[in-house]
Amino acid sequence: MSGEWWRTEEVVVRVLPAKLVTALLAEPRGWSATIRWLRGVRPSGESFTHHRDVVIILWVIVAMTVLEGAVVDVILRVVLGPSPWVWIALGLHVYAVVMIVAVYAGMVTRPHSLDSGMLRLRTGLGAEVAVPVVAIDAAQAGRYPSFDRSGWKVDGDGDATLATREANLRLSLAPDMTVRINGRVRPAPRSIHLTVDEPRRLAAAIAEARDGAPSGIPDDAVRPAPAPS
Known about the structure:
Blueprint: H1 8-15, H2 18-39, E1 46-48, H3 55-80, H4 84-109, E2 112-115, E3 118-122, E4 128-132, E5 136-144, E6 150-154, E7 159-163, E8 167-173, E9 178-181, E10 184-187, E11 191-194, H5 199-211
Parallel strand pairs: 7-11
Antiparallel strand pairs: 1-2, 2-3, 3-4, 4-9, 5-8, 6-7, 8-11, 9-10
Keywords: Membrane, Transmembrane, Transmembrane helix
């Protein structure tokens, strides 16, 4: 584990399936992320954000939820009077707003990071996938429309997805390697498709960390996604 989350995660990830772990830890991660966001805490190492294109959408959803809550509250008070259902509805709307903000806080405070030879890939409140840079054969920036927004999943061909929108970076992994998913060691997939705000910068950083190559990659290294078979 990276040490960013509560110690209870160490127990949970050892005994439950990975998808169930992600679901169970989403809410505590949300509260923790919100606190870290307010305190300006970020993970160690070089960070690579993945939330730039969804900021406006998230805040629009927050505004609409607040407006809806206010309208519903007024209507319920007129129709039901001093009923407990009025407070229940208000509480649910407040909770919804808090969790939407938590998702945003998670995306800000849980960027992808590269530190001490380990690339850590994250989503807002979902999985953390730790990949040793020595396991990465190539990092190719481009458009990968076949790998759209998704939590961690691996298809039948061994291609994994961890994307907040259409994937724009592909990591090709060496065979017979392992990764850590929420702290649990698993066989590495053939490739990982992810979303990052600056895919070429992350590709360059991976190359530099793995091979000692200088920063920057040539334009011809940015390839389009392969055509679907």
